Amino acid sequence: MTRSMTQCYKATVTGKVQGVGFRRATQAQALLRQITGHAINLADGRVEVVMYGRREALAELCEWLWQGPPAAHVTHVEFESRDVPAEERAPADFTTR
């Protein structure tokens, strides 16, 4: 993927999103769309998702984040577009921590 095609978004997901398989489900959705990045639990109960990929694929994942897996109850998602500096490389995979 060339740098000009790669976009980066950061999402912070609020609601019942920890202990319900949210990170793993997000990883599966990201991999289906060839998106790299990570999903991590935050200490305050939210989940942070940083994603790199094509704009269309990111838009699809961003829409999915409002739903999440069946056991989740998402109440809010905050998005932030991030510039990808020329020297920064997108991660090779999508990980959970």
Automatic annotation (TrEMBL):
PROSITE patterns in alphabetical order: ACYLPHOSPHATASE_1 (PS00150), ACYLPHOSPHATASE_3 (PS51160)
Annotated ranges, domain Acylphosphatase-like: 8-97
Active site: R23, N41
Keyword Nucleotide-binding applies: no
Known catalytic reactions: an acyl phosphate + H2O = a carboxylate + phosphate + H(+)
InterPro entries assigned: Acylphosphatase, Acylphosphatase-like_dom, Acylphosphatase-like_dom_sf, Acylphosphatase_CS
Gene3D superfamilies: 3.30.70.100
Keywords: Hydrolase
EC number: 3.6.1.7
One family name in Pfam for this protein: Acylphosphatase
UniProt enzyme class: hydrolase
Family affiliation: Belongs to the acylphosphatase family.
Protein name in UniProt: acylphosphatase
Organism of origin: Halomonas cibimaris
